[in-house]
Amino acid sequence: MQPCTAKNNPNHRKDSTPVPVTPLLAADIIIELSDRPGRPIVLIDRRNTPYGWAIPGGFVDVGETVEQAAVREAREETSLSVRLVAMLGVYSDPSRDARGHTASVVYVASAQGEPEARDDAAALAVFSPEDLPPNLAFDHARILADYLVFRRSGERPAPQAC
User: Fold this and answer.
1) In this structure, is residue 15 part of a structural domain?
2) Domain membership of residue 54 as a residue range
3) pLDDT of amino acid 70
4) Which of 44, 61, 133, 149 has the maximum number of C-beta atoms within 10 A of its C-beta?
5) What is the mean pLDDT of residues 132-138?
6) Residue 119 lies in a domain
7) Pairing status of strand 57-59 against strand 121-127
8) Is the pLDDT score of 8 beyond 60?
9) Does 85 map to a domain?
10) 78 and 124 in contact (C-beta within 8 Å)?
11) End-to-end CA distance of the chain, in Å?
């Protein structure tokens, strides 16, 4: 099986059809540390604006899948190799990111080891999902509330119409 890239995608535009203006695409990863009691999660303290504690993640690069971006961003920001467990949902409220309209695919992932703050992370900490810091960036309070429901019940959040 060939990797998913624009080069071998039969739907890739090769003509001069105008490319539509669309939201930016990001991947965020709720990393559960499976080798610790209670499976705590990793949050980063953002080095850049908007500041605050955040779920690790970032923009999808051209030529990579959202899943590949999630794994890459986790490694770049926390030094952890993650295993994607589930897709929690897609968060696309146009006002979720003050820098511009960004849609994010959010995954739940499992990892083991000692995370380290890297790349866009000024610092990093491990939290119980029931005891999170108050200054969460973006819409991560909503995402983490949805995650808590998923973690307790296995139910993914229903799509929300704004």
Assistant:
1) no
2) 24-153
3) 98
4) 44
5) 96
6) yes
7) unpaired
8) no
9) yes
10) yes
11) 39
Domain annotation covers residue 158: no
Give the percent of the chain with pLDDT over 70: 91
Task: Write b or e for each residue in 111-139: b if 16 or more Cβ atoms lie within 10 A of its Cβ, otherwise e.
Answer: beeebebbebbeebeeeebeebeeebbbb
- Does residue 145 have a pLDDT over 80? yes
- CB 76: neighbour CB atoms within 10 A? 14
Here the CATH number for the domain that contains residue 107 is 3.90.79.10
- Is the entire prediction scored with pTM above 0.85? yes
Structural domains counted in the chain: 1
Q: In this predicted model, what pLDDT tens digit does every residue of 68-95 receive, in sequence order?
A: 999 999 999 999 999 999 999 999 999 9
As a whole number of angstroms, the distance between CA 41 and CA 31 comes to 5
Of residues 16 and 9, more confidently modeled = 16
Q: Are strands 41-46 and 24-33 parallel, antiparallel or unpaired?
A: antiparallel
Q: Return the bridge partners of 29, or none.
A: 107
Structure tokens at 109: 């992932």
pLDDT at site 4: 58
- For residue 115, cis peptide bond before it (omega within 30 degrees of 0): no
